[in-house]
């Protein structure tokens, strides 16, 4: 398929998704309508992946993967805030649960799937060790400062931070993420580029017109994904409550829905022997999730004075520490096999199992 043509389904599916959002006030929560919303959501995710890949091929790496990571994270922040603010104290932990779930999904689910698929098809895959090490260093720092340290601060009892502490954590999170983006895209861009040429490295890039159309359609797709996810969230919350699962599972579902475009794009890149692109997408999205979500939520909750629960309980702290440790070790050689993929997927399965059965 030529990159200078726009497949019909890539714009038709977002149109259907937007139609479903406009029809929601009239359709209510009928089972058939919710089924249609779920199908539209899945189709729109695939359309978003297509447009992100068109943009990525035009602007090159690592800018292409950064586009999708930033776009998805901005929409994720909007979804979290739109659910948290009306929910009051009952939703005080939603940002923490969603950010933690995003880290576990990305660093174990998506990375594990990419390493497994790539290993099954290509036996061993190479990537830039310097880039992965840089990303893991920033990810470990952000994770501990935002999700573990609040449980041990003493100004306010419990896993909370005072307004001054919250503002400080927001500033340092934004500083760390901003510095990482500067290093990734300008100062040490070569750390995040594959050493060999990929299979489509010499394919003609899309025209400027097609690229701008894909930019617009990508934004429409991402907003539609969030809108449809919000339509489905009450049904998801009822289903979670019906199964007797903890409310934290709602954060996992939100993070999973929003991260679907990046997950699919990363898996496809790994199968095409472009593991560097997969890791750029995965680790970049985990960093963007913390580096943009925490500062934004911190600013809003400092000014509104509402409680914001950030510190993780002990079980989740152990899983996060295991994820960071294993991630640093499995990406420490610059080469991966199916073994690293299986290890990460087992950790992800453990995270999901103990979230549903605490």
Automatic annotation (TrEMBL):
It is a multi-pass membrane protein. Its main location: membrane. Residues 31-185, 214-356 form the Sodium/calcium exchanger membrane region domain. The chain crosses the membrane at residues 9-27, 33-51, 63-87, 99-120, 132-153, 165-186, 207-228, 248-267, 279-302, 338-357. Keywords: Membrane, Transmembrane, Transmembrane helix. It is found in: Membrane. This is Ionic transporter y4hA. It comes from Jeongeupia naejangsanensis. The lineage of its organism: Bacteria, Pseudomonadati, Pseudomonadota, Betaproteobacteria, Neisseriales.
């Amino acid at each position: 398929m030529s990159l200078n043509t726009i497949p019909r389904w890539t714009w038709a599916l977002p149109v259907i998704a937007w139609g479903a959002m406009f029809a929601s006030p009239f359709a209510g929560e009928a089972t058939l309508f919710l089924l249609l919303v779920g199908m539209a959501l899945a189709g729109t995710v695939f359309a978003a992946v297509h447009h992100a890949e068109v943009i990525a091929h035009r602007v090159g790496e690592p800018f292409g993967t950064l586009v999708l990571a930033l776009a998805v994270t901005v929409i994720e922040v909007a979804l979290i805030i739109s659910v948290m603010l009306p929910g009051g104290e009952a939703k005080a932990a939603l940002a923490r649960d969603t950010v933690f779930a995003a880290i576990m999904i990305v660093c174990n689910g998506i990375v594990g799937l990419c390493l497994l698929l790539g290993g099954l098809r290509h036996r061993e895959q190479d990537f830039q060790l310097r880039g992965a090490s840089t990303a893991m260093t920033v990810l470990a720092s952000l994770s501990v400062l935002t999700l573990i340290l609040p449980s041990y601060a003493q100004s306010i009892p419990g896993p909370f931070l005072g307004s001054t502490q919250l503002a400080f954590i927001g500033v340092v999170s934004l500083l760390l993420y901003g510095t990482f983006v500067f290093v990734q895209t300008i100062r040490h861009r070569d750390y995040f580029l594959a050493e060999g040429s990929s299979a489509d490295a010499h394919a003609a890039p899309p025209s400027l017109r097609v690229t701008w159309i894909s930019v617009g359609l990508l934004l429409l797709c991402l907003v539609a994904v969030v809108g449809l996810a919000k339509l489905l969230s009450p049904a998801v919350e009822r289903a979670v409550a019906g199964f007797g699962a903890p409310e934290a599972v709602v954060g996992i579902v939100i993070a999973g829905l929003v991260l679907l475009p990046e997950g699919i794009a990363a898996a496809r890149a790994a199968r095409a022997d472009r593991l560097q692109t997969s890791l750029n997408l995965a680790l970049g999205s985990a960093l963007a999730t913390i580096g943009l979500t925490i500062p934004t939520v911190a600013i809003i909750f400092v000014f509104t004075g509402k409680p914001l629960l950030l510190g993780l309980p002990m079980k989740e702290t152990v899983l996060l520490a295991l994820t960071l440790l294993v991630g640093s070790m499995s990406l420490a050689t610059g080469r991966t096999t199916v073994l690293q993929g299986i290890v990460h997927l087992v950790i992800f399965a453990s995270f999901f199992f103990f979230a549903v059965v605490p």
